[in-house]
């Protein structure tokens, strides 16, 4: 049994074709609780979960597209705009977000 995790693309591609991606994980002791997600916030979220800002980072948009096209990744319903905005705001709020991501965050278009 392989547990699947949802990943959320937070930005539009920049000039280098990079997007910032975060993952969602189950709420556990010691989790980063900057943004909590609950059942109903997204069809994939069926229990209390957190955004893993420590794992946030850039990836190439074309690689994501290739992996979606090949079936390696699956696409789910879009996140509600209000929840996506909370997650995006959390990038700068979380003490777990890596410096490099915070430093370049404002260079990305949301």
Q: State the end-to-end CA separation.
A: 35 Å
- Low-confidence sequence ranges: none
**Which radius of gyration do the C-alpha atoms yield?**
14 Å
Write the H/E string, N to C.
Answer: EEEEHHH
Strand content: 15-25%
Helix content class: 25-40%
Describe the protein's architecture and organization.
- A hairpin with an 8-residue loop joins strand 1 (7-9) and strand 2 (18-26).
- The protein has a four-stranded antiparallel beta sheet with strand order 1-2-4-3.
- The chain has three helices and four strands.
- The protein has helices spanning 61-70, 81-93, 99-104; strands at residues 7-9, 18-26, 36-37, 49-60.
- The chain is an alpha+beta fold and 110 residues long.
Task: Tell me the layout of helices and strands.
Elements (H helix, E strand, L loop, with lengths): L6 E3 L8 E9 L9 E2 L11 E12 H10 L10 H13 L5 H6 L6
Antiparallel strand pairs: 1-2, 2-4, 3-4
Describe the structure using short key phrases.
110 residues; four-stranded antiparallel sheet
Short description:
The protein is an alpha+beta fold.
């Amino acid at each position: 049994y392989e547990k699947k995790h949802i990943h959320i693309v937070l930005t539009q591609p920049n000039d280098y074709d990079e997007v910032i991606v975060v993952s969602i994980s189950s709420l556990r002791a010691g989790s980063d609780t900057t943004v909590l997600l609950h059942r109903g916030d997204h069809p994939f979220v069926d229990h209390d979960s957190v955004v893993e800002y420590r794992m946030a980072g850039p990836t190439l948009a074309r690689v994501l597209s290739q992996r979606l096209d090949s079936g390696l990744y699956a696409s789910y319903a879009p996140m509600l705009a209000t929840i996506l905005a909370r997650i995006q705001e959390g990038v700068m709020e979380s003490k777990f977000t890596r410096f490099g991501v915070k430093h370049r965050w404002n260079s990305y278009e949301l």
